[in-house]
């Protein structure tokens, strides 16, 4: 499967969001998110480390937006405010 540049950028913004939430004190780290949603953390780490070869599940974006009020427009398009 070929991951497009747009897909890679969305994945990168997803992980930027995780980092910002950590900086803002809303989560302790990625493990907080993965435990809450019963996601295998190592699978998510694999996506983070290999955005050119592995695809981020769209439901993870939805969970992040719903749980922490992160802007879906920001994650998907890189436009607008983070929150």
Briefly, what is this?
The protein is mostly helical and 83 residues long. Helix content is 63%, strand content 0%.
Describe it.
The protein has about 80 residues and is an all-alpha fold. About 65% of the residues lie in helices and about 0% in strands. It starts with a helix and ends in a 6-residue tail after the last helix. The model has no long low-confidence stretch (mean pLDDT about 95).
End-to-end C-alpha gap:
32 Å
DSSP summary: helix tally: 5
Mean pLDDT: 95
Q: Radius of gyration from the CA trace?
A: 12 Å
State the share of residues found in helices, binned by percent: 55-70%
**Shape field:** globular
The helix/strand class is mainly alpha
Let me know the number of strands. Answer: 0
- Characterize the largest beta sheet: strand count, sense, and whether it forms a barrel: none
SSE arrangement, N to C: HHHHH
Please indicate the percent range of residues in DSSP E strands (runs of 2 or more).
Answer: under 5%
